[in-house]
Amino acid sequence: MGAPSPKAPLRVAVLASGRGSNLHSLLRHIAAGHVEARVTLVLSDKPDAGALALARKAGVPAVVALPVEPGEAAAAYDDRVLDALRGERPDLVVLAGYLRIVGSAILDAFPGRVVNIHPSLLPAFQGLKAVRKALRAGARVAGCTTHIVTADLDGGPILLQAAIAVRPGEEEAHLASRILQLEHLLLPRTVQLFAEGRIHVANGVATIAPGPTWFERPGLDLVSGALYAEGF
Ligand code: GRF
Description:
Elements lengths: L9 E6 L5 H11 L5 E8 L5 H9 L3 E4 L8 H15 L3 E4 L8 H6 L4 E5 L11 H7 L4 E8 L9 E8 L6 H24 L3 E4 L2 E4 L18 E3 L3
Parallel strand pairs: 1-2, 1-4, 2-3, 4-5
Antiparallel strand pairs: 5-6, 6-7, 7-10, 8-9
Helix pairs in contact: 1-2, 1-6
Bound molecules: 5-O-phosphono-beta-D-ribofuranosylamine.
The site of 5-O-phosphono-beta-D-ribofuranosylamine has 14 residues, from helix 1, strand 5 and helix 6.
């Protein structure tokens, strides 16, 4: 008998509307062997999104620019996204700066397998301009969250969080860029937990099965002073 065949890498589809720094970080962590996944599709509603250019450069097999048609209903647009997704049979759909609400057709097609990264410590500061909201509220601690996407916008089961102390008088752009650095580890880490099959959701709460931790690995760009919480 030969050696058991290695597990196929998790197939990941990424939806992104913007510059794509989280996509870039995911691709880098995959290339470095920290994440056992393949990004098989990158789709954007914005044809000029940096994420698409990055995906082409990285040789992602399917790179799809899918602008919204004039007057197109959200559900009709989602059906077109779903067609593109189905063609690539993803195990996981990652929203990385995707500025549209994902409707029920997509969520039902990939139950518990659509994840988002949000630049706040959810459930605080949901929605757009989360960093600004945190500063305006005088938050002393800020950070980011990965969560499973449900119909409840930014309200689905929390997966991982990372936190940093807000500096006195810190400007929004500065805090946002420090949070982004946290995001660049949190999202790849979240994908790896899916690859390891360690995420389980019951009664709206996600649990992570015990296993190897990640944040002590050499070669990761950890932000000093940050708290990375894996919850197991
Ligand atoms: C990130 O701040 C993410 O939390 C939010 O959108 C931003 C995307 O940034 N959902 P990028 O396009 O990955 O650089």
